[in-house]
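Dear Dr. H.,

I hope your travels went smoothly. While you were away I took the liberty of generating a structure for the chain from your last submission, since the lab meeting agenda had it listed for discussion. I wanted you to have the full record in hand beforehand rather than looking at slides cold. The sequence, exactly as received, is reproduced here:
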Amino acid sequence: MSFRIKNNIFWVGIKDWELRKFHGNEYSTYRGTTYNSYLIKEEKNVLIDTVWAPFSKEFIDLLSKEISLDTIDYIITNHAESDHSGALLDLMKEIPDTPMYCTKNGTNSIKGHYHNDWNFQVVKTGDTLSIGNGKELIFVEMRMLHWPDSMACYLTKDNVLFSNDAFGQHYASEFMFNDLVNQNELYEECIKYYANILTPFSMLVDKKIKEVLDLKIPIDIIAPSHGVIWRENPTQIIEKYITWANNYQENQISIVYDTMWQGTRRMAEAIAKGIRGADNNITVKLFNASKYDKNDIITEIFKSKTVLMGSPTIGRGILTSIAAILEEIKGLGFKNKKASSFGCYGWSGESVKILNDNLEKAGFSIINDGIRALWNPTDDALKKCQDFGKEIANNN
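The corresponding predicted structure, in token form, is as follows:
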């Protein structure tokens, strides 16, 4: 069901209450998501983005109840990823000649996805499209936020920024505005979204936000492609992005481990005790990587000053849950964070060096050589783990 956002601007998207995995199985979505599509009814009727392909027919059926499809004058495709463009194939069968506005990279990406040569109209930053009643859409390229084709558009007079993936979150709610939803839930999803998706592009995020702010345009509403719409103090999420984009960290140490016979777990707990004994002001969090959601762990790593990774040695290597986390953070490119490693071993003991080497490759500053414990840690070994924790706290 559609609803009015402001004046002649309507939400015509889909709420996906059941979604629990996104980007294949790479991203957890405990609170579902929305695929936000927007319809502007002025002298010209404009559709901004569509929805994911499984909802294509439902979307078009609902859209046709809101407006006669053949009266849509323009389609804006801010981003070609299929959760935004997935209904284009079915929609363009109905209105095949409708002009479609996107970036040059967007044209290439849409053709790559759907193998159709539609009526593409290529735009770049600063280009405008008049839609009547004195209103214009202004286009802003958002390259690598988070795809090469990404862009946003801004509606003058109504002062609405259609930001696509920027400022969004995977969060389905009956209350589609930021002032109506639970604020803790909202910001949990916002920082998780940033940490897991946008972190690699933080320098570009900072630069692009400053570019938008330099336009000195009033922003009354930010309408992203996923989650709730920002209408109360909408620039609060812009301020958060600026903070998150600048090597964000809290006074936190995250201890991420996996364990076979509980020895590495006992080491983790002893290290945590040592940290707390050295500095009560540090937040210490422990995560068994085989039992916690990896995206939640990555969010906590994003928030941390220091990260400790633990794994026993298995087959001259490390446990797979830890290997998966290391692979993820290598691609995310975290900055300005410290790290070290720990783990049990029986006869060869390579895991700690493997962990430290991988953390260094991921861009972390390595505090020390880490700590190992032979077999099941003795009381003396656990005391050394506590001392190790104190050293980590003093270097945090």
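Two observations you may find useful: The domain at 3-244 is CATH 3.60.15.10 (Metallo-beta-lactamase; Chain A). Residues 45 and 140 are 20 Å apart (CA to CA).

With kind regards,
E. W.
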